[in-house]
Sequence to fold (165 residues):
Amino acid sequence: MPLPSSPSVGTKITAAWGSSLLSSLPGKMMGFTSTLTSATSSGTNGTTEALLAGSLLTVTNVEAGRYYTVTFGCKFVVSVANTTALAIVHASQSTITTASPSIYIAQQPVAATAGNQQEQTFTCAWVPGASGTWNLQLGVKSAAGTGNSQITNGNDGVFLFVQTA
Fold:
């Protein structure tokens, strides 16, 4: 089955488009969310993590010990050149906070403050330790440099989805 055509530049990726994309891939989509909002780290050198509110995803019927793939996409922006941004995927069976366990951390050095950073897509394996309902959410903070880091939408919006592996 061919992949669906991408949405037009600057539009939010819809759940229907995500479903269409995932139906063309192996595995079963368990959940999908997309947002045109952003989150920015704060504090000294941007080391205080911020959660991206629009990225909260609740996934039901998760099976302990089963392999899932978690995929997300975003654009990194920094307030000071040569800052390294971290995008963090948190997973918990309760409310997500910045202290919730992380299942993946994507590190992206950003050389300039201009808005020309490329959008990135990341995929990781996830094997939950318990069955039931899980919440996943993206966070951002700086790992190196002196600026704040931001995850934001680029051409397609920030997205997060989970599917069976």
About this structure: The longest strand covers residues 132-144. The chain has a mean pLDDT of 84.
